Amino acid sequence: MRRIIFEALGLSDKEHSVLNVLQHQSLAQKISKISFQTKLPQTTTAFILRKLEKRKLAIRKRHNNHFVWGYRKSIDLFETITENSTKNSFISVVSGIRNIELELRKILDLGSSERLLSIQGAGISKNILKKIDEKFMHTFHDEIRKRRIIVEGVVAESVYNLFEKMTTPQLFSHLDRLTIVYVLPDELINFPLNIFIFGNRIILVDYETERLVRIEDPALQESYKALFFLAEQFGRKINLNKYIRELIVKRN
After folding, report:
1. If we measure between CA atoms, which residue out of 142, 124, 126 comes closest to residue 134?
2. Sign of the C-alpha dihedral, residues 217, 221, 222, 224?
3. With CB atoms 3.0 to 4.6 Å apart as the test, which of 33, 187, 230, 242 could cross-link to 29 if both were Cys?
4. 133 φ/ψ angles, rounded to the nearest 5 degrees
5. By residue range, what is the domain housing residue 128?
6. Are 92 and 106 in contact (CB under 8 A)?
7. Last residue of a domain, one of 45, 71, 97
8. One domain for residues 51 and 101
9. Pure H helices in 25-167
10. With contact defined as beta carbons under 8 Å apart, do 197 and 115 qualify?
11. Do residue 115 and residue 229 come from a single domain?
12. What distance in Å separates the CA atoms of residue 191 and residue 73, rounded to the nearest whole number?
């Protein structure tokens, strides 16, 4: 499975070894330390890091009188967007679960049969069920069903596995929505964000820090859509409603 994932990303074994170090280090490091951990020559490591930087998988930052390298998490994108925002862009940041829920309600402005695209990174699996109010979840899903909004999602394996941990009422809440779901290995979308793409908006939610960023930018929205459909190609298509029914039947 790991070999298939690396080939899907177009990474060689050496490139993956460097990316793996970047993903697991807590702080950005100098090339010498990354080279030591990967057991690759520093010249090779530097060359690979520049390739990963071009592919937006690595980020280089100046620290004192030298550069350090880290994994380009989605959260880093916030800074880039803020620095390069134009007159046609709008960015809003809110904190706190209640404010996040208010922002998520704006999804319900979508008309019948319009699509909501969603990407759920592996990192949200630790907190999403604890953080989101169950009453809000039920109401939100009820409105999604009533308005016949189509939810097309790419989810990490660990997030998909959360259905087995849900209570029966939570399962019923998710049932009978118009959904198209693709499951990807955690390693491919290993970030702590729930991303929603709809209208001309992108919403990025970090449940752990209780932070939401809303971006209104047509060009960025199209870019995120392209990334979504690319991720979809490598996913395993799931009949979510059938799966949820099977889980409910097992409990009865």
Report:
1. 142
2. positive
3. 33
4. -65, 130
5. 74-251
6. no
7. 71
8. no
9. 31-38, 42-54, 74-83, 97-104, 128-131, 134-146, 157-160
10. no
11. yes
12. 7
What is the rounded (10 degree) CA torsion for 141, 142, 145, 150? -20
Residue 43's CATH number = 1.10.10.10
- Amino acid letter for position 8: A
**Cα–Cα distances in angstroms (integers) from residue 147 to residues 90, 101, 104, in the given order:** 27, 18, 15
**Beta-carbon count within 10 A of 188 CB:** 17
Would you state the structure tokens that stand for residue 80, as one six-digit string? 């880039």
As a dihedral over the C-alpha atoms of residue 172, residue 173, residue 179, residue 182, rounded to 10 degrees, the angle is -80
Model pLDDT for residues 127-162, shown as the tens digit of each residue: 888 888 889 999 999 999 999 999 999 999 999 999
Shared domain check, 33 and 108: no
For 33-63, write each residue's pLDDT tens digit: 999 999 999 999 999 999 888 877 788 888 7
